[in-house]
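Can you make up a polypeptide sequence alongside its tokenized fold?
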Amino acid sequence: MKTLPFILLLLLASCKSEPKTEIPTETEIDPTVYTIWKSYGQAHPEVKSNEMPASWFFHDNQKDADRLAALVVNGKKKASSGLYKWYEDAGAALPKVGTKHIITNFDGTAQAIIETVQVDTVPFNQISAAYAAMDIGTEVDALAKWKEAHRAFFQNALEESGQKFTEDMLVVCEVFKTLWPQEVLYEIKLNERSVVGVSPDSLQLEAMESKWGEEDYFTAMDDLMWYSAQMLEVLDSLKIPYINTERRRFRIVTPMEQLEVDNDTPEGGWRYFYFNGETIAEKDLFELMELK
């Protein structure tokens, strides 16, 4: 059965499905929903005893619902947005970090399992391009596209209840990650002593600048560039290859072991992994500057 907070999610302008007049019974749930949860449980035994998450689709029509589900599956859509007012009016709690959901196509066919990783409330007119890109699944004119689509959706939904949309309305910004199907990770193969560096991508950098402020952000960048140059000089003198990537998730493969790296957070961060020829260990810049 679906709880009140989940029914509310169906009302939100995150382009989720239209309001339901009745809670679906188990017989109305597509069999693929049970199948995907069973498959996930077989790969992750720790959740086998957990109650199956609620299942739903994005938007209110087949074309958009199926398109957005596909974006979730390939990891491009990582957020959804709804008006805080709707939670407030319904007396419902905001989404909770750690909550899982099963995303379906418009016809109810299960496509993916997601988990909420961050929840914020932000005025509509202060939404960042970085967040907008996570929501709509593209970096091309992300903020303009996000505002156009959500302004229209919010306005239409509010007008139906005799309310008006304003640019400073609070938006509940729910960031999630796709848990299932499992991503086919990009592999970096190492056979000799090497360092793999992970840099934030353009969206993560934008989120950092927004959080830190322009002055602190550029001061930090200047410091980072200086120390990075020192580290690269040390690695070059030791003839240790340096491989840099902006991929948020990937796998380092050596003849002895494999390590999956997950840097998929809104802000990301700079991380470094040192393979000494036998094992892989995460290091900071200063440790790498002291290599012999």
